[in-house]
Amino acid sequence: MSWTAERVELLTKLWADGLSASQIAGELGNVTRNAVIGKVHRLGLSGRAKSGGSATKTRKAATPAARPVAPSKPTVTEAVAATTPSPTPRHIQPTVAGATALKVEPIEAIETEIAPVPVADIFIPLNERASILTLNERTCKWPIGDPGAENFYFCGRQSDGGTPYCAHHRSIAYQPVSDRRSRRAS
DNA sequence: CCCTGATTCGC
DNA sequence: GCGAATCAGG
Q: Does some domain include residue A70?
């Protein structure tokens, strides 16, 4: 698989949209995140819009040899990126599922306690929604919207081994339970 | 351990 | 040009 114009455009678009390299790789298919990152750098674009997901702290120079990133070749891709409107107010690293086969297993676990919580949050572009499941199972599976609905999707932020939710949703999930003493008060 | 992007370097 | 390996950080 080579970097066709279409693939480069999609790459540029998704990158500018704030998706992570791995998400983009999954979206493109037949490529690894390394390939995506390598291409991104080769294209001369690297610091896209700030993402609230995770790794985003452009590391300082850690190599002995300095490298002037991208010389100065205004390519079509840059033009595209510049023209691409990105009014996406993201606070998180989106992800979603819904289009393809989405598994709603955690539903039973959450319905017990977090059912009433509407979970406002942000709007995630469709192109990003398909990426979530493509990623892995270590992402927050907090359902947003009505399962089955077209606009249904999962939080998608990184979760931790323990729970299937990210820190935020984890706190919401295991919260109230006024008189819920699962363990006998020792 | 998982993830993120950054850089190097052989192909 | 490409991307795996590696690195550096969260």
A: no
**Which residue lies nearest C10, CA-to-C1' measured?**
A55
Q: Which residue is nearest to nucleotide C3 (CA to C1')?
A: A35
Task: Indicate the pTM of the whole model.
Answer: 0.55
pLDDT at res. A57: 37
A173 CA to C4 C1', in Å? Answer: 40
Domain total in chain A = 2
User: Closest by alpha carbon to A143, among A100, A90, A93, A95?
Assistant: A95
Task: Identify whether A144 is part of a domain.
Answer: yes
Report the first-to-last Cα separation within chain A, whole angstroms. 61
Nucleotides of C under 7 A from a protein CB: 1-10
| Strand B atom within 7 Å of A59 CB | yes
**Averaging pLDDT over each range in A67-71, A117-121, A152-156, which range is the top one?**
A152-156
What is the CB neighbour count within 10 angstroms for residue A152?
18
* Domain with A24 in it: 5-43
Is residue A61 included in any domain, yes or no? no
Q: How high is the pLDDT of residue A51?
A: 41
